[in-house]
Design a protein that fits this description.
The protein is an all-alpha fold and 128 residues long. 76% of the residues lie in helices and 0% in strands.
């Protein structure tokens, strides 16, 4: 059920007053600091991955196996950090809330049932 115009106006006023009184708290609620942290982690992970790749090739060229293994481990670690930052929401907008549950919601029913439901919704939408 969507908000009425009056409710939307009041909500907007509340948001503005909160942002004026405590900008840090409002920023935390919007998630902008959290997203900025995730972006920094992702950028550092990409740089670390490239550094690990350089170490891997340097170990292969110089026949120093331990250096190549170190580069490979660095690549694995930074890939893990990047994937965690990505899952936590690098690309989310400020308006889109972060997922709080650990598991994504699973679709109910079989594939055929879901396709039939979609088809029915399309047909119902076209007849209106």
């Amino acid at each position: 059920m969507p908000l009425s115009d009056e409710e939307a106006r009041l909500l907007h006023q509340l948001e503005q007053s909160l942002a004026a009184e405590d900008p840090d708290f409002a920023s935390t609620l919007r998630g902008s600091k959290f997203m900025a942290h995730n972006r920094r982690v992702a950028i550092l992970a990409v740089l670390g991955f490239i550094g690990g790749l350089v170490l891997l090739f340097a170990g292969a060229v110089s026949a120093m196996t331990w250096l190549g293994v170190l580069g490979f481990v660095a690549m694995l670690g930074t890939a893990y950090l990047f994937m965690n930052a990505w899952k936590r929401g690098i690309g989310r907008s400020d308006e889109e809330p972060a997922r709080t549950s650990g598991k994504p919601s699973k679709p109910t029913g079989t594939f055929v049932d879901r396709m039939e439901e979609r088809w029915q919704r399309r047909r119902d939408g076209d007849e209106r």
